[in-house]
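Dig into what follows:
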Amino acid sequence: MQIDTEIIKKPLLSDKTVSLINNNQYSFLVTKNSNKPEIKAAIEKLFNVKIKKINTINQPFKQRRIGKFIGNESRFKKAIVTLESNQKIQLFPEE
């Protein structure tokens, strides 16, 4: 298994995912073909934390129309990572 830090695209920040941070859960957009062990290794390497659990979700395609053209919006994979109780990820820089 190859540890690749390109697996993690970006953190997801919405009202729901920010509220999950209180439960020590963080959400990330990941590559479509990545699996849980690869995601775990990449996040542990990037943020130097211990992971308790990972849930992944494959988002379905959404149809979009622009004038007479109909196409599919690209889909992505979301990973919700639960950290050990004493671990944290610093998403926002403190001043």
In short: The chain has a mean pLDDT of 88.
